[in-house]
Amino acid sequence: MKKVKYLSLAVIGMMLTVISVAQTTEDLITKHIEAIGGKENWKKVNSMRSEATLSTQGIEVPIIITQVHNVGMKQEFSVMGMSGYSIIGVDGGWNFNPMQGQTKPEPITQDELNVGKEQLDLQGEFIDYKEKGHTIEQLENEDIDGVACFKLKLTRKSGREATYILDPKTFYIVRTISKMSVNGQEIESTINLSNYQKLPLGISVPFTMENNMMPAPINLTKVEVNIAVDQSIFKVQQ
Length: 238
What we know:
Mean pLDDT: 87
Number of strands: 13
Order of helices and strands: HHEEEEEEHEEEEEEE
CATH topology: outer membrane lipoprotein receptor (LolB), chain A
Distance between the termini: 78 Å
Number of domains: 1
Structural class: alpha+beta
Strand content: 35-45%
CATH architecture: Clam
Low-confidence stretches: 1-23
Radius of gyration: 21 Å
Largest sheet: 13 strands, antiparallel
């Protein structure tokens, strides 16, 4: 009987542990969403236009990013008098980079398109993540510059995973880690996020992004929300 009693207590203990972890995970998600402006405000975001700069080797590269929620995203840039762009749409994606010798837009690979389409969720993957078919679990804390930060792993409906590191004081995401296929090889992309600023709609976004795949940080200078966007910009005239 004692063994049965102890076994019951052990099972109850495990159940309480599971419940506690689940509550902690949901609590972190809720606090993060509240920190960046709240679910209601983010659900109002349908489009966004951002102006940014990337400074490298003494050259300042202006960048314009136009996004429409679950429709498309276009990034435009200019270097030494030459202009290029990349487009991700529901039906396909294209790159045009004259600095690399391209004379016309070229379609991206299916792997690149799959990754790019995940970025079309302008309202954020944490918002209504269960309804979107994603799962989130809490991992062991990670030390970032001497600070024990919260760590969440998101597994998308597609099966692709991403890790998010949250600051324990602000609950902002300060780092994202994901894997992607480039030229047939799997590489790890790490992006550090900082300089969060609040926009008129009440949402907060990072104005500085450092990607280990980029030569220098990208700094936003202007962000507009819910502007009118001609969706034809996400199409390429071949």
